[in-house]
Protein 1
Amino acid sequence: MIVAERKPFDEIKHMVSGYKKVLTVGCGTCVAVCLAGGSKEAETLNAELNLAFGKDGPEFGSDTVERQCDMEFLAALDAKVGGYDAIISMACGAGIQFLAERFPGKPVFPAVNTSFIGVNLDVGWYEEKCRACGSCVLGMTGGVCPVTLCAKSLFNGPCGGTNQGSCEIDKDQPCAWYQIHGRLAAQGRLDRIIEISSPNDWSNQKPRKVIQPGYGERVKSLGR
Amino acid sequence: METRPFETKHLDKWRSNLDSCIRCGYCYEHCPVFKDTRWESNAPRAKMIMVYGLLAGKLEPSTYISDKLSSCFYCGRCNAACSSGVPLTDIITDAKRDFQGTGFETPGTTTGTNTDCALCLACARACPHEARDFINGKIVTDTVKCQSCGICVDICPNQAVATNLSYGTDRSSLNREISTFLEQETAKAIVFGCNWSYYPDLQSSVMDPAEELEYKILINMCGGRLEKPLLLEPLLQNAWGVLVACCPDGDCEHDGNLKAKIHVAGLRELLKEMDIEEDRIQLVQVAHGDKTGFQAAIDTFMENLNKLGPLNHR
């Protein structure tokens, strides 16, 4: 899932200063799961803002949609947004942009910082696992991502800084290639990392689009 | 769903000593369920009479009886107050065991989860009683294990968890109480007190004080279920301050005091950022049953609050 953290209160407060009616929109999926932007957090933020601004401050409303990255769920806000002169989004960067795209006449402000794609280790504890590089090598690396977990995102074994299982940047940071070697050795698959991997193409990055097989015609018919 | 017939399988062990309940009624005044409704049928004594009826075959099992027996917050104050040493909450748990899986099973005060649930599993991980589980694609509450502490209510990011029968402990009821109290001119503070440890019973509390109190004590079932917006609500309604009372470290069965400490510390930090005196929100840990200590903490808090003055002077 996408993991986010709430922005410092002062930063959010500063962004919405001067507006009269502000709608705080929570997102009920990834950012809710990581306890950063669900309906509870939206309500809490509004209570905090109300207290900070006092009676003469903006009026804050709130709503939470299932996902801000789906236009059908955003449609539920169409009738509501007209009554507000600014929007706070508690979704990830994708949701915030989709919300801003749907309501181009309204200033949209982020209330969270999108951190990473990660896993849920325990309540409130998350770890990055994927950088969305677009060229997954996990099949070759025993399910350990060298792009995310190696400080240098190396594709062909560890650097000289590997130190008894740890990374040179921090002894508490495991060396990804040490882990990759260990797992593949245990599975008898070390041959998978003997071949030299060509580097990923990091150049000329632009926003990527994914159209799943079988959906091309549908996308074309939508004219987008 | 497949159900099984009701049997007094777990209750049977109480058959020989249930008579030790002499119906004195000392348990009444301590029970938060009774205190909310003032219904005889909600008092711990009534629960024992119902169990007696079920064991004697004089009462037929029903959802009504199951509802009554499942309405318990496990504060254990009835056990402590019982003149005959009847372990009421153990008996109530066995009654819940016998009703579980039958067509009469009802959720009572246990928590339920609605369709806003994002399946984040935070409640299942945080439940101190291992009462919430992910089964067949849904979060399910074990009505026997759940002790209605409300830790799951506080942690749910989508506000999808609620106590089925809250008996005045839910947020909207508490918000109503806050609004009603703060309408009074003399009202200054809200004190959230935990039922588990020291909430004054009816006999020792002053029902009709000669002077209006400057503060109101609101029962919550555990400090761990005090959600942040609830703690801010009094301040939004121009209260001068909020005092949160919870159990000392290690004394809370649900570790709810740890949650309360985190929330209050976070809010104090926030007040500081807003240039509001952080002492307007305070937390105090009071030992079980220490009514004098509780009162002393309230008095100190109020004394300090009176020095700070009203919040709306800003």
Note: The first strand of chain A starts at residue 2 and ends at 6.
Protein 2
Amino acid sequence: MTFATQALPSRSLHFNPRLKRNRTDKLFTSIAALFSLIAVMPLLLVLVYVLIQGGKLISVSLFTQLPPAPGLEGGGIANAIIGTFVVTLVASLIAIPVGVGGGIFLAEYSSSGWFAQFIRVGNDILAGVPSIICGVFVYSAIVATRLFFGQSYSAMAGGIALAILMLPTVIKTTDEALKLVPRELSWGAIGVGASKFVTITRITLPSAFTPIATGVVLAIARAAGETAPLIFTALFSPFWPEGLFNPIASMSVLIFNFAIMPYEAQNSLAWAASFVLVILILGANLLARWIRRFASS
Amino acid sequence: MVIRSESGQDQFTLRNRPRSERTIDIGFKLLTIVLASLVAVVLLCIFLTVFNGAQEAMASFGLSFLVTSGWDPVNSQYGAFTAIYGTLVSSLLALLIAVPISLGTAIFITENLIPRNLREVIGMMVELLAAIPSVVLGLWAIFVMEPLLRPFLQFLYQSLGWFPLFSSPPQGPGMAPAVLILVVMILPIMTAISRDALNQVPMELRQGAYGVGSTRWIAIFNVILPAAISSIIGGVMLALGRAMGETMAVTMIIGNSTNFSWSLLAPGNTISAMLANQFGEADGIQVSALLYAALILMVLTFAVNILAQWIVGKFSLKYN
């Protein structure tokens, strides 16, 4: 008597690459691989071009001279580099205290109250407001009304516009970072008699320093590259910065202005400014990653 | 109150909080409340400023502003249809291209198809793409992408020119390159959100699917993607909001034409590009018309963002 063991071939448990399902599987895997390649290509292409086109122009004069008048050769982007630092600094000085303070309220005082929820929703909406609208708002509220000493376009106005952009990120990272601090730490502090103020500033905030710092660095990096809020707030200036209440040059606006000019020298300065800007921003991003890794190890 | 031990020494003293300490505490709390309220104040101010400025144009053009396409500063006749059409078409087309690419990438770097190190490198590169300033992408689009793309667009025009979407010769800047640069700009956010969503799907679901004999992609299509779909759709909506508001790269490559054209190869316009180009030099009712357009853009992005948050909050499957 024979059993029909051969009807159930043991080979059915082996992987057969010629089966239709396995071939379909392979096809989809290749498609996903192709899509990943497409997703990675833009970064590589942009970086290669920025490094090649911009790297050609890296020289001492780039960092020490003013941009040339249209039609002339040479020159540098020194005023725009300073301007980017000034405007970003103004924005950080406004957005970091406000954002960290707001984040402390959300996480420490009223974590689930209606007001905190309202502020959180508002914060998410503010994060979604297009950056050009921030520019339009600051233009209407500050530049057109000549709010600061009768000055219209100013570095200050540009900094405020950037601060509005940074604010939601800073609040959100502070809120989330503080919530991750173990409650036992603040219970302990309050248990030994510390006031709420001392508990927050000496215990909770320092323990959440790393994630907050990471978020802040990323927010600053993003603000440094923003153009849309600056084109009609800080405007542009071909001269050296003249204080906070005058128009100021910045690298991002320089790239925008010089990219669409029909002059070779201006176009190449736009590439050089892109080079400096991209290096700074990628550097800040890598710094943020490093802070995160350094803290988690 | 003082508790004394048997030896008679003070062990624990309940002290009254000094007035200064209480003042600092209350003052600090008030300070944080004020700082937190600033968010709401700024948001309200933005809305009111734009709304107020738009009043004049709303009164004189009404709702026909939305559907007429003339933009004529000389005769003070304004209609934003070209820009609204450009905003919607460019962002929706960009989404159409970016969704499969970012979803494919997210699957590729979460589903254990390649070694972990490689996955992390790809993930990091996509994240770094998000850090490249939009104006640099615009510069790259003008000088590198558009010249590379032009022969292909020329081919599209010659072979499919009868089709309204390809009915004009490519002349440099236009809607098509703008769509492609938007794809580059929204890829990172969509990949990041899809990746997080896929990572949240519990391992047991995958194990179950493989256990009953499904292949990897059968599991992905029938088990893993359905489990993560709400967050992915939320991410798609967020990316849509981002794409509609994106300004610089689009302004630099879209051509900023106020003439309406169905063709994707012709220069077009978006609301944000129009604002970037004209707002600084506008005066009189043109400012008001621009603010009216800005208000439309704001309402569009508000709606999309709120819808996105609602979808994520409402439908996201809660694991663990």
Note: The mean pLDDT of chain B is 86.
Protein 3
Amino acid sequence: MVTKPAERPESTGGLIRTLLTNRFSSIVIAVLLSLAATWIVISVMGVEPVRVFSIMLNGSVGSVDAVTQLLQSWVPLVLASSGLLFTFTAGLWNIGMEGQIEMGAIFAYGAIHFLSGTPLSGPLVIIIATFSGMLGGALWAYLVGLLKNYGNVNEIFGGLGFNFIADAVLLFLVYGPWKPAGVAQGSTKMIESQYWLPQLPGSYLSLWALGAAIVGILIVAVVLKGTYFGLKLKAVGKNAKASFMMGIPTSRYMLLSFILCGLFAGLAGSIQVTGFLHVLRNSISGSYGYVGLMVGMLANYQPWVVVPISLVFTALSKGATGLGIDLRLDSNLSGVIQGLLVIFVLLMEGVRNRLSRGSKGISHG
Amino acid sequence: MLLVGPYNDNGWSTATYEGGLYVQAQIPNTEFIYADNVNIASNPNTTAAQFAEQLLQRGAKVIIFNSDDMKDGVSEFSKAHPDVPVIWLSGDYAWKDGQRYQADLTNESDIMGEMEYGKMMAGCAAALTTKTGKIGFLGPLINDETRRLADAAFLGAKYCWENIAEQTTPLEFKVTWIGMWFNIPGVTLDPTQVADDFYTNGYDVVISGIDSTEAVVEANKFQGQGKEVYAVQYDYKDACKVAPKACLGVPYFNWGVALKPMIQSIIDGTYTRQFVWQGPDWKDINNADTSMVGFQKSDGLSADASTKLDQFISELAGGLNLWTGPMNYQDGTVFLKEGETATPQQIWYMPQLLEGMLGDSVAK
Amino acid sequence: MDVELINIHKRFGKVHANNGISLTVKSGTVQGILGENGAGKSTLMKILSGFIQADSGDILLDGKKVTIHSPADSVKLGIGMLHQDPQDFPPMKVVDNLIIGSPMGLFPDRKKIIREFEELQKQFNFSISPETYVDTLTVGERQQLEILRLLWLGAEVLILDEPTTGISASQKDLLFATIRKLAAQGKAILFVSHKLDEVEALCSQVVVFRQGINMGSMTPPYQTDKLVEMMFGKSIVRSENVCEKQEDKSFEIEELRIDDVRLAIRDVNFCIQKGEVIGLAGMEGSGQALILRALAGILRPTGGHIYMIEGADGGRIDLAGKHYFTYRDHGIHFLPAARLEEGLIQGLSLAEHFALAEEQTGFMVDRDQVENLSKKRITDFNIHGTPESRIEELSGGNQQRAELALMRDPLRLLLLEHPTRGLDIESAMYIWGKLKQRCEDGASIVFISSDLDEVIHYSDRILVFYGGKVSPAFEASSVTIDMLGQLIGGKGWS
């Protein structure tokens, strides 16, 4: 039998129940709760919350320059989050995203490093570097997948391990072979400007990068929502055993989800090099992998929802840099707000599940 | 102003920060705003140039970058805003005779102190204090500037060891580079550990070349265990205050001295691009209004050594040039022939450590 | 203590689980209670031990009428029940398990309890250390612990519900010795089982239940045939027919071997004809489930051949050792009993299931086509739901029909685990109707079921399993239910 929709609420209790069980309103409640919690945290720090929020708003969307910075930072995050949708859909936690972004950056920078000075044209080198970066990210993700499939190593531990290795490789390169002549200071020398992604004048924002991000999320949405591949991936994520029984080669699909995710990570990494920093340096992954996991979770694995949520997260971290200048607050406050948001959304998710399960039980009885 | 570290690091960033405050106090109607922790580790997704934009939005009329680490940010920002005066502390883009001269950055000026003199005094204080004849130099990363300063410390120490303390045994001077201006766990050598190794291996004075205070903190710890060891600090006038008895003194910058006239010229509309490399005011090296570089003695320095150090300082003031040949690089090649003195370019772009020093000349 | 149950009735909805059952167990005797699954044995025992209450009827202990409202009541009256699943607390020590179940107040005397426990277990030659943790004990030891606990609480009547499942042969011997000793001490023992040989070996008297009714009792010497007939009802007429015509053959299984941690199955030989239904009968865990999974390609046999006959000339392919997907590609389809674990995917809609099961047409999913297909299948298979219904929102019967609807054509061999378990009669009949249609199209069916009626009713031939041994194939029409009952109970094997 199909369960009937919840009864029309007749009392306030019923209304609250409906609000809590509706997906949209429960997210709104979670956002309000996290704002309230942030308010308390800020008040305890002895600062006026309204000022904090207005500075953050100003810093993220208050000017044309802020908006271009916001979009520039949004590109790698939305790429990371979209890539993670593949692994999330397959029921996997790709903690190794950070390392995959770093590998993407290393491969992209490496391509430019070896091709600069050759007669190849700038745009061609950028294209090669981009694909090389995607290859690097995919390779790194593939290794995690292999370990999971054939070594029986949980992808969370495998991913963490490969993050450390990627870190080590990156540090070795920027302090070693690729360090600028004479100086070792955690960053390579800048790539020649002919190898930069074209940027809007006076900003870091590259329309090419922005375009890549938008195309990326479109691809993810179409693949996950419209193709047999996406449907099978979803099936594997929901129930690998039954999917196998239905004839889906589950381990191959899991590996593919890692590789696809790695391609996106690598793209994010190469854009960090060609479109933003123009160097290879430590921490080039910018924590986009970890934040992307949070975005993916909050978006409940829905591609379209990733767009606004990743924008909000980017706005939070961009807006927070102004806090240091104007209020002498640690910009990590934005991390606190993001964390609270995640916790409250997950909490509301739990409440919603519990309540809707409860009401299902009643209608069966 | 963009500070590479926290404004209260008691080192480089604090010294430049105080320079900003000095200008604000000295020139009416100026306001000093700043962003600190402008580095990769603290703000991975915001570049120095982006921080500069934020200050510009908040009404800043002059942007000061306080670190060599921000070199990319300096050139990017200067190119993007040719109408905004940019001052780069410790930079050299504006030096026509320099190797990194960038002619197109017409709004950009550089300021640096002739810290060589400060480091010579530091080396001298160390040489006058050491009983073992072994001095350690806690180096940051290896580049022209840091080799220059390590060499200067060595020259000061050697001179005072041989000519003032009148020792005949050779002085041992060892440089250990940690890899960065401050400790980054897992990336740099741990400066606490390096200082420890110096003290336990008979190096009873350590000259700090880094921006933080590990050397003197460790010296204080060893003194607590009854060992007679000392450190010389760097950058900031009050850097010895964390442990005055373990500290011989600190060569420091008075950034305000050079910043004030430059800011004033911007206000007056007479600003032109300059490369400022300014030394101490030999009349009074610790005059906060006139001396770009100073040396602040601390409680660790004995009265006798203090007197002899003053003697050395007056010799410097009197025209003593330690950059005089014969002098060889560490690998034995000739740096200066007999009687030859070094040019500013030779000093600024120092390619090696000097003969007689232990430690790496280039990063391995 | 004598136990008397008089005219006990208990209904669960439409099912009359205990229909006027009366039973007397004298002190000092071991009363066997026989019956197939669902005969009403457990219901009666639960009534006696207070887990459920009878709708009507009386319980007399030593001639006195008592009312039992809860397990605690029954414990107070001296009735102890040893459940199929141990009722202990695994992460705790043995002695603490005793303390928890005792009415001793806040500060139990640990030393005294340990002393009493040691004395008690000495009587029965058990050796359980009171200080070990329960989860380190074997199933047999936990059972011993439970018996000791019940005795320590003062049980005079002991109910043992299928106590020999999951314990070793030596533990079984010890258990039987214990039971005999307890009877000699004057306890009344109720021994519930569906294993004829055990009951015959142990009990001083046996009653047989069928469909909630007491079918009669017997004392030694036991006539096994008679007991089986009482358990399963009347016999059915024989007829003949064997797999002989080459053109009808679909599969040949030769010398198939399976080695499992618990079971070694050797040398299984049989053939499967086109359009026939083969039922695999046996107690749970006798090997039939393993064979079924081996035929599906999920479990890799350790030896032997699974030949699929290709074409009229008798050419054949050996599938043994091939990948599960190869089996699927050859039209071999497996329907697991754990529908929501292995068969269907929670969180996906019916339409998504149909899209997954169909032959993939291109890269993109054609929504309209899937929608239409889903609607058609939903109608064809009488599924109460919409294409958008998520699979876990459907009832068990609808899920089962959905599983059938997911099967692709052409189908050579259909392997079913408990195809109608948990379904009402109407759903079960519908399912079998659909399955028989498949047979008419040339598919063969092999299924397992614990419902012997179902096995006999729907099979053409039957293989019986007991402890990993496989009987020759019987014509279903030639097998009587009592024969089958004997065979699955381990009787009549040469």
Note: The longest helix of chain C spans residues 169-184.
Protein 4
Amino acid sequence: MNTRVRERYDAVFKLLFKTTGMLVIAVLGGIFLMLVWNTVAFFIKVSPVDFITGTQWNPSGSQASYGILPLVVSTTLVTIGAMLIAIPLGIGTAAFISEYAGKRLKNFLKPAVEMLAAIPSVAIGFLGIVVVGPGIAALTGQPNGLNALNGAVLLAVMALPTIVTIAEDAINAVPASYREASYGVGANRWQTLVFVTIPAAAPGIIAAIMLGVGRAIGETMTVLMATGNVSAFPKGFFHSVRTITATIAIEMGEVPYQTTHYFALFAIAAVLFLMTLAANLAGEYFVNRFRKYHAA
Amino acid sequence: MTEEKIKLSTQNLNLWFGNKHVLKNINAAFAENKVTALIGPSGCGKSTLLRSFNRMHDLTPDARIEGKLFLESLDLYDKNISVTQVRKRIGMVFQKANPFPKSIYDNINYGLKINDIPQGDRKGIVENALKESYLWEEVKDELNKPATRLSGGQQQRLCIARTVALRPEIILMDEPCSALDPISTLKIEDLIHSLKDKYTIVIVTHNMQQAQRVSDKTIFMYLGDIIEEADTAELFNNPQKELTQNYISGHFG
């Protein structure tokens, strides 16, 4: 192959990869523009203040109301609940796999946790309806268990594989020299893990948590099946809730094209987008704060 | 070496990594308040010997140890002994400076916290340790700065400060200057001289000039055996074994 042809190859591949890269950005931009476009269309008809402060979501009543607050609170409730369960469990599991488990247990545990991610969300939702929900109902003496807690438990299960896998990688990547230094001053395993290894792995662990949060906020099918979908203002973990995602999934199929209700669904999707964006930015901020202490 | 008090010693020490016999029947003694250098070509087992004193091999699953190690009369591998206490009494400075990814202050404070030293005493101890390590003047205004921003030599002196803050009886140093420039190396060597009054120091080094500059006694190892041990000047000027002669004159290594 002469040099001329080789350089031509280079140019062609450069163009190819540039195109694919641009395509991804174009798709992202397109989605974003579509959201913004339809959201603006919605705000022409309904005032943003009513939308944000309204405490009732009832688009099909005789007096239609588009208050997003109950939906945001529902999503937040389920997400926070899921994280309260998944973060300690996930970091604990990751720390155990990486620092305490023997080689054979590790070789079994890690793939097993990763397999969790392969379970379809519908199957998890099903589990919520027939096992977790009734379980919660029986424990708390309620007529049914389709509530925020049920959704939180299921989302925690779904977020766990991501959190465990990435957190474990982060803990594993902490240089052995840090651990040796800690043992060298007389620390035991637990102190080394809590005061040295986990803080050193913090950027990776926070990234893991943020991906878990992203999954929990955006997950649709499971919460749709398991949380009861009552659009009344949520009162707590033991009440039915209706998340943003579930609302869009339920109503989008039945709404007439380009009505106020149709645009409203785009508007709440835009809010959902802002929420995940905020979670990611917060994660990025913490990652940078911890990185300050790492060698460049 | 009969007149000195023996601080650290081994008795028929054998060590294997898997099937590899790394230390072969080592009988060594280290005198109190002296600097003893361990020299020898790569792979001779000098670092392995050093790390067996503060039980760093506990962390290596396939390491197997036979024989005894003593801190004075204390059997270091006795089942009833707390390994964290051993490591507090026998501090270690590693080959590559390994400050924690924390602030300068917290790097030293960590060991104090771990060893339950009262909160009120810590600040003074940190300051003292930094002074003893000749680092205080350079960092006293920026104790909250990340330790990883310090230069390599400063980091290594911080690691020494972290070790002396716990007032160990022995400091093990595993090629502490191998990653440093000559000026930083000189500072560390000065530091070693000044630490000798209070501590017993065992230092592994590849650098024969360094061994002559800093140590009182030298042990030459080869392929897991101790070939020769003597006062440093004696060993370098008048080696008894041909192998020692060849090594210190640079014929191999």
Note: Chain A has twelve helices and two strands.
